[in-house]
Amino acid sequence: FLFLVNCSHKLEYIKLKKWLKERGFEDSNLRPAEFWETGRGLMTTKALQAGDLIISLPEKCLLTTGTVLSSCLGGHIAKWKPPVSPLLALCTFLIAEKHAGEKSPWKPYLDVLPKTYTCPACLEPDVINLLPKPLKKKAQEQKMLIQELFTSSKAFFSSLQPLFAESTGSIFNYSALEWAWCTVNTRTIYMKHPHRECFSLEPDVYALAPYLDLLNHSPNVQVKAAFNEQKRSYEIWTNSQCRKHQEVLICYGPHDNHRLLLEYGFVAMDNPHSSVYVSPDTLLKYFSPLDKQRKAKVSILKDHDFLENLTFGWEGPSWRLLTALKVLSLGAEEFACWRRILLGDVISARNEQQALATAAKICQFLIEETQHVLLQISQLKRDKENLKPHLALVEMLHSENLKILQKSAEILCNLNLGTT
């Protein structure tokens, strides 16, 4: 079936549509609906062909740093030293407008924004612990980033006190900033703005796009999206077909599931861009500490950036992973040839074979590790009712990883059979 529930009759969407219309948005063929796989999204009321315009959102509907500066926050931001970042300006505006409630001109948009997010920064420590190692590290960095932003912005938030009856400490609290940061991080479209003196030097490339941000991601569609300078509106054109009453999907970029979870808080099923990362510790476990050249080999890999982004994908081990394994598998008499490996040369049949055999061992280890984590998750889901939605997300990530690793194991098995 195509959609579960058409939501366009819901009051919040009626109000949003009316609000957009007042700002010059012409009703497109898109209707909000609930979908089985993606949750809330937009469906089309007529079939779309490649080359059709999906949506055109006038500049007046977009929330940018320009919006923030022309609000009552503008003067305070302009005066503040050192200058705030464009990101912090948008977060501050979202918190202030949400606090204003009925009085906010942006209320119809704020009412349809998610109340909570599933970005790694918002997950419980118990859930973060279940993420694959490389992603767990990035999730902790994301949490730290928001915490540091919060700490470094306290003085700025206090300076806004004249605008509020309540204390700014209670309005601009940590959870409000986390919510605003996730809103900006997960929902903005890319739109370059000229640098303004009142902002720090970080690039000002954000725009929040009401209604348009209900479009969900699929790795299998192609779209063209850009701001149309003539029409002063942000447009998305499709390069794919879409049947009537089907969900209209756009592509946020060729991201793997780690990146999707980190940046947007979701995982895509059967994502062709997805891969499983091998951490440096896992890689090195398979090489003897007695190898006299081990230290030198690790230095070479580090210097040439071959210790990070080593992956298994739907096509098997990546070229980078195999290259790292070949360097680590060099015999004492072959060690001088390491440069040729980085260029893609074959050094010896033994070296090739050892690299493939080690890749197969690592793959098997990761399969078992993933199965173990999936078991832990299913036990936790029974015990911790409140963590269920978060656990389901992590479970989906590991299930997808398992599929990729099993495919890689099969490919390696055939390659190893071919070489023996």
TrEMBL record:
Pfam families named among the record's database cross-references: Rubis-subs-bind, SET
Domain SET, first and last residues per copy: 23-253
E.C. numbers: 2.1.1.364
Domain of life of the source: Eukaryota
Molecular function via GO: histone H3K4 monomethyltransferase activity
Subcellular location: Cytoplasm, Cytosol; Nucleus
GO biological process: inflammatory response; methylation
Keyword field: Cytoplasm, Inflammatory response, Methyltransferase, Nucleus, S-adenosyl-L-methionine, Transferase
Keyword Nucleotidyltransferase: no
Keyword ATP-binding annotated: no
Example of a GO cellular component annotation carried by this entry: nucleus
Major enzyme class: transferase
Catalytic reaction annotation: N(6)-methyl-L-lysyl(20)-[histone H4] + S-adenosyl-L-methionine = N(6),N(6)-dimethyl-L-lysyl(20)-[histone H4] + S-adenosyl-L-homocysteine + H(+); N(6),N(6)-dimethyl-L-lysyl(20)-[histone H4] + S-adenosyl-L-methionine = N(6),N(6),N(6)-trimethyl-L-lysyl(20)-[histone H4] + S-adenosyl-L-homocysteine + H(+); L-lysyl(20)-[histone H4] + S-adenosyl-L-methionine = N(6)-methyl-L-lysyl(20)-[histone H4] + S-adenosyl-L-homocysteine + H(+); L-lysyl(4)-[histone H3] + S-adenosyl-L-methionine = N(6)-methyl-L-lysyl(4)-[histone H3] + S-adenosyl-L-homocysteine + H(+)
InterPro entries for this protein: Rubisco_LSMT_subst-bd, Rubisco_LSMT_subst-bd_sf, SET_dom, SET_dom_sf, SET_MeTrfase, SETD3_SETD6_MTase, SETD4_SET
Subunit and partners: Forms a ternary complex with TBK1 and ZNF268; the interaction with TBK1 is ZNF268-dependent and leads to TBK1 monomethylation.
Family under the similarity heading: Belongs to the class V-like SAM-binding methyltransferase superfamily. SETD4 family.
Annotated protein name in UniProt: SET domain-containing protein 4
Taxonomic placement: Eukaryota, Metazoa, Chordata, Craniata, Vertebrata
